[in-house]
Amino acid sequence: MTLVACQPPLRAKLVPLIARQMLTPGMNRLLSLVFAAAVLPLLGLYALLISISTPSRTGGMEPTVTTICYIAFTFIFGALIIVSINFSRQLSRQAKGQLETP
User: Fold this and answer.
1) What is the DSSP code string of 30-60?
2) How many other C-beta atoms can be found within 10 angstroms of the C-beta atom of residue 90?
3) With a threshold of 0.85, does the pTM exceed it?
């Protein structure tokens, strides 16, 4: 009977590689702030598009189309804001040294 050494799992091989390729903590904090600050222009653009699509005396869209636009804009901008906040939180955790891989 021969004994065969087991290969270490692939994840054990990748963790040192990932740790070497990380950004510096200062750069992670900066990018975390940038992603968090990116939410404000998204909210401004959302408010602008909602105000443009609102029906008024001088123009606008029909109420049904307006409602569909409101729902679509809410989903699109909501998803973008959630992604931006998640990126910001992940970069903040990495800056503190808490490496979390998905």
Assistant:
1) HHHHHHHHTHHHHHHHHHHHHHHHS-BTTB-
2) 17
3) no
